[in-house]
Amino acid sequence: MRRLAAEQDAVILAHNYQSPAIQDVADHVGDSLALSRIAAECTASTIVFAGVHFMAETAKLLSPGKRVLLPSPDAGCSLADSITADQLREWKAERPGAVVVSYVNTTAEVKAETDVCCTSSNAVEVVRSIPEDQEILFCPDQFLGFHVRRETGRDNIRVWLGECHVHAGIRPDRLIDAVHSNPGAELYVHPECGCTTSALWLAGTGELPAERTHVLSTGGMLEAARTTSATEVLVATEVGMLHQLRSANPGTEFRAVNPRAVCPYMKLTTPERLLSCLRTGTTEIDVAPEVADRARRAVQRMIAIGSARTGE
């Protein structure tokens, strides 16, 4: 497959939540923004993005001169779908003067209505770059939004009540059961999870081991996995992430808090679809220029804030 990609002057990018079969044939594996930045910096004229629709859009925003292909154009995202551009415009009209901070897990149309984007790893940094007396509209993920509000101590952050249905399904009771069944294990929790607030509260009360409870982006999980001395780590995020963690540290056992946390949209990309995409090139993603120009500014503003550490 890589030989065919090379013949097409294409680079294959795969998100951490793709199946192991897709990750193993990709040129690069990572989170959506890190991959989009790789797409912008690489010399290939064609980007094949094994992910979901908003990710391919973001790659196109940062690589307007390149062809971006999405093997599964029907691969949506429940989180990105939880707010539309019209809904965001209405919210902005209700709170004039507020700064809009949007997670990169949004459509290009929503990004175009956004002042600055963020990832799960730099959301706190992005919000802290905004004057403390400035009201903020944070969308669309409520769990990440409440995590940022807690970390910054700012009560002027208004949070849109959207969610990723997969991460929202990783509930506190399942988390507690997993920890009690695996004493001594470290715990990696993605801030999109429905159990994030509970995990931190339980760690504060002693119900969970505070020193072993870590709220991390997927990029942060990978960094932690490379250096951990733990023999076992429980992971609260989409199960595709386990493949990268296990590859990074074969000596540690990484186990899903919820083995059923599988994104059906991510799994739409199969080897057969990827091969067909490379052969035909018929699944190209584009963004209207008037939308792309505004959406690109929101992403670039994020990148300009500090080092703009990537990681969903």
From TrEMBL:
Keyword list, A-Z: 4Fe-4S, Cytoplasm, Iron, Iron-sulfur, Metal-binding, Pyridine nucleotide biosynthesis, Transferase
Keyword Iron-sulfur: yes
GO CC annotation terms, alphabetical: cytosol
Transmembrane segments: none
Pathway recorded for this protein: Cofactor biosynthesis; NAD(+) biosynthesis; quinolinate from iminoaspartate: step 1/1
EC code: 2.5.1.72
GO molecular function, one term: 4 iron, 4 sulfur cluster binding
Essential cofactor(s): [4Fe-4S] cluster
InterPro entries listed in its UniProt record: NadA, NadA_sf
GO BP, sorted A to Z: 'de novo' NAD+ biosynthetic process from L-aspartate
Superkingdom, taxonomy of origin: Bacteria
PANTHER family documented for this protein: QUINOLINATE SYNTHASE, CHLOROPLASTIC, QUINOLINATE SYNTHETASE A
Protein name per UniProt: Quinolinate synthase
